[in-house]
Structures are given as structure tokens and as C-alpha cells.
Amino acid sequence: MLLASRLARACTLLLVTLLFVSCGANTLYRGVAVTSLSDEQLVGELVSAAQGLGVEVNRTMYLMAVRPEPAYVLTSSTTTFSGSANATYNAYVMPTGYGATVYGTASGTVSGTSSTQYQYTDTRGAERLGNAIATAISRSRQAAYRRRGQEVIAEYQARVSRRRAETEQVIQEFFAQNPDLQARRTLVAAVAPWAAAQGIADNRGILQRTKEIIGALPRGEGLTGTWYGTFAQTTTTTQGETFAFSQFVRLALTQRDNVLVGNGTLGTGEVIEFNGEVTRQDITAAVANTTSAINVKLTAVAATNQITGSFAGSGTDARLEGTFTLLR
Question: I need a labelling partner for 280 at 20 to 30 A (CA). Which of 67, 95, 125, 272 fits?
């Protein structure tokens, strides 16, 4: 009994050790404080935690599905008798090898009570124990992945809030120093992504370059000049799937009498060609995205420094429509 008790304690200690060792979140940057991770590493860690959580959820569900049912087998029984017996015995003993065999008969009466205890063993006990341990480990890992994911998300949100506040402060200072651009905030917002695309990482540098681009915008007769803006598009595929997005656009237009032509670039790098006509303030045109094989027809209203309108057309296996605004 002492040996069995020591063996049971040793097994328990081993299992507890196994649980603690195996239950950590095995993420890409395990053990590294989230505050020490770069932005790219933070995203990678969040993806790793989400993937690990998904794997452990699936593993737990599988282990629960295959958990074996008990299989009890009778291994022994013990009967206890309490009462009296009145019997006549007739017995004799015969030597057998190095021992003896007893033969005999008995007759009489017996009265009293008896109770029997049965001992059963679960033949699948080891399997069930292993399954329970594996399930516990998997659930503990789930909790570890959730905790790690929550830590990463909290750090990400803190960085976003901090940088938003810093950016807003820089923007306020920029417009305070350039009050003439205060009324052209929409144009500043449309030009800024193109300034950033030139490799400028500092917010103040981006705004300064934006100011320079706006100050040097070429203008000609009528609507001739360089225009910056945005468009919002909704695309419907032939399978009925619909998705929407917004994008920046830069467009160089040339007007000769009532003819308006030009070419431009989307924020994705796709190239577009513009061919249209101007009647007073009304514009009708055909626009071709030569990169993605998309053609649309647009109608718009033009003012001195602003063009707004809508478009509709088609591309490969899709119909699309949207609205746009161009500024200068």
C-alpha cells in the first residue's frame, strides 16, 4: 500500500508538471512583452494567437467527441455471512503430492443473513484519464491564447489612440500655420496620401509636402489642370456577391472647347483614361481602367475648383457603380 501511494503521488506530480509546461500560448513572440514588439510584430503576434486559439478549439471539440465511454468489468466479490448452522460433517483427508486434499459431505440447516460486495474495474480508465488530461491541456491553452490576444489588442488600441492624438495635434498646428488651407481641408486630405507615397514617413513632412503639391498644381483654360479626389464604388459579381470600397485618384485633364480628355492614376497604381465632353457645367465621359479592363460612363457637374458626379459600368464578370469628387 505504501508503494502504491508513493507511485500515485509521483504520477500526480508528473501530470501537474506536464499541465504547467504544456499550457502556454505557443505564439510567434511568446515570452516577449507586447510593448517591446514593433507594429509589424504586433500584427504577426495577433495572427499567431488567433490561429493558435482556433487550433485548440478544434482540438478540444475533437477530444470531447472521441472521449471513450466507461467499460466496467467485475474483478472480485466478497460475501459476509451472519447466522447459525446445524450440520453433520463427514470428511477425510488424502495426501496429494506435498499437500493434502479434503473430501467430505455435510447435511443440516443454515439460517442467517449475508451481504456481498462487488469490485469493478474500468478497463478504459487509462484512456479516459489520458483524454481528460489532453482536454484540460487544450482548454488551458485556449485561455492562454485568449489572454495573449487580449494583451496584443489592448496594446494595438493604445498605440492607435496615442498616434491619433499625436496626428490630430500635428494637423491642428499645420492649419494654424497655414490658415489659407483651412477652407481646403478636403483637398489637403485628397493630396496627402500621394505625398506619403513619396516615402515621407513623418506626419509634419507629409503635410509640408502636401502644401507644396497644392501650391504647385498646374491650371489651364477651363477645367485643364491636375485634380485630386476620391471615389466610392460598389461592385456586384455575376454570382451576386457585393462589396464596396473607397479609393484615391489623381487625374490630369485637358479641355479644348467642349472636349475634355485626360489620364490618371488610382491609389492602387491602376491607370485610367478619360474622354468626355463639357456642356456648360455638365460633363459626360467614358473612363477606361486600362489596368483592370473596366469601362464606366460618368456624369458630373463642374465648378471652378470642384467636380462631383456618379458613374456606372462593367468589368470582367462584374457590374459596378459609384460616386466621386475631384478637387484642385
Answer: 272
Q: How far is CA 50 from the centre of its chain?
A: 5
The answer to whether residues 150 and 21 belong to one domain is yes
74: region left, alpha or beta (phi > 0 left; psi from -120 to 50 alpha)? beta
Q: Please give the backbone phi and psi of residue 313, each rounded to the nearest 5 degrees, phi first.
A: 180, -155
In a 3-state reduction of DSSP, which class is residue 59? helix
- Do 118 and 129 fall within a single domain? no
Q: Of 304, 274, 272, nearest to 289 (Cα)?
A: 272
Among residues 242, 267, 245, 249, which one has the least CA distance to residue 318? 242
Residues 6+ apart with CB under 8 A from 220: 254, 255
Strands 242-256 and 259-266: antiparallel
Residue from 239, 241, 172 nearest 204 by CA: 172
Strand partners, 210: none
DSSP type of residue 24? S
Domain count, the chain: 4
Phi, psi of 317 (to 5 degrees): 60, 30
- Specify the length of the chain in residues: 328
| pLDDT tens-digit readout, 93-116 | 677 766 677 777 878 787 888 888
- Closest of 247, 33, 16 to residue 140, by C-alpha: 16
Separation of alpha carbons 211 and 193, rounded Å:
12
Q: What are the phi and psi torsion angles at 257 (to 5°)?
A: 60, -115
Q: Which three cell numbers stand for residue 211?
A: 502644401
Taking the C-alpha atoms of residue 301 and residue 144, their distance in angstroms, rounded to an integer, is: 57
Contact 34, 45 (CB under 8 A): yes
pLDDT digits (tens, 9 = 90+) for 176-231: 999 999 999 999 999 999 999 999 989 999 999 999 999 999 999 999 999 999 99
Domain-located, residue 232: yes
pTM, 2 dp: 0.64
CA distance 328 to 312: 24
Query: In this structure, is residue 25 part of a structural domain?
Result: yes
Q: Which three cell numbers stand for residue 273?
A: 483614361
